[in-house]
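Hi support team,

I've been running sequence recovery on a batch of backbones for a student project. Most finish fine, but this one hangs at about 90% for roughly twenty minutes before it completes. I'm not sure whether the input is malformed or the queue is just slow. I've pasted the structure tokens below so you can try to reproduce it. Let me know if you need the job ID as well.

Thanks,
M.K.
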């Protein structure tokens, strides 16, 4: 994986290297393929122009429409838990900027990513095309129902907070497939990994996280969120 060349910001690979060393390795993520992907994808091209100077800092950033690109460490941690293999087909729910989908494009064979906000999906698809990641397919839909057209998946990663695990996503896992998802209440969740063995599912729980809500049929109801503080 060679870093993308950006003549407008030639030193970005140094910034990405510092991000990997100080934010990701320092917190214990060790998967070498995940680290290599984080060094290769230019995060600054996935945020709005006014946020680009902060692209490699240890924070989520606004991407418009009330949504965020997740903190780099959280993205790396979720990818490590997902452990995508080069031959895998994976699904991401919550395309947002397209950054995590781009990383998945380097780590897996075929990537489907779904987003409910059409403008975000279109902007992400344009970025992914500019980077030549033609194994990543962006779809506009309610991702709480997955993307059955391409199922089953070796891995599914959900980048928004679910009140409970959507049954449709479990149903779209291949045997041995992994689902990584933040589950909990509106302002705080736990990172969970579900692994399918035949028709049984094994759940592991990891650290606390805080994501924007997963809105949809098997997620939060948008009207109830608007009413909350
Ligand atoms: N993975 C993204 C990235 O790399 O920029 C960050 C995702 S952002 C934290 C969460 C995204 O999930 C938002 O763009 C939001 O619109 C989207 N989302 C929320 N509910 C959704 C649903 N039911 N289906 C698809 N996308 C959803």
């Amino acid at each position: 994986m060679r870093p993308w060349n950006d003549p407008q910001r030639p030193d970005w690979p140094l910034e990405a290297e510092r991000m990997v060393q100080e934010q990701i390795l320092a917190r214990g993520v060790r998967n070498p393929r995940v680290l290599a992907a984080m060094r290769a994808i230019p995060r600054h091209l996935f945020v709005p122009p006014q946020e680009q100077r902060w692209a490699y800092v240890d924070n989520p950033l606004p991407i418009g429409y009330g949504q965020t690109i997740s903190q780099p460490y959280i993205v790396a941690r979720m990818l490590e838990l997902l452990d995508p293999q080069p031959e895998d087909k994976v699904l991401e729910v919550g395309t947002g900027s397209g950054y995590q989908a781009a990383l998945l494009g380097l780590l897996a064979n075929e990537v489907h990513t779904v987003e409910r906000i059409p403008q975000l999906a279109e902007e992400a698809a344009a970025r992914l095309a500019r980077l030549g990641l033609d194994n990543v397919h962006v779809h506009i839909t309610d991702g709480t129902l997955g993307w059955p057209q391409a199922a089953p998946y070796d891995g599914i990663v959900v980048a928004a907070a679910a009140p409970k695990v959507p049954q449709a996503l479990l149903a779209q896992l291949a045997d041995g497939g992994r689902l990584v998802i933040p589950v909990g209440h509106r302002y705080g969740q736990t990172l969970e990994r579900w692994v399918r063995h035949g028709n049984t599912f094994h759940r592991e729980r990891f650290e606390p996280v805080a994501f924007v809500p997963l809105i949809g049929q098997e997620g939060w109801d948008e009207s109830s969120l608007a009413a909350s503080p």
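--
Follow-up from support: It reproduced on our side and the slowdown came from queue contention, not your input. The pocket of S-adenosylmethionine is lined by residues 67-70, 93-94, 96-97, 99-100, 114-117, 120, 142-144, 159-160, 211-212, 214-216, 219 (CB under 6 Å). No action needed from you.
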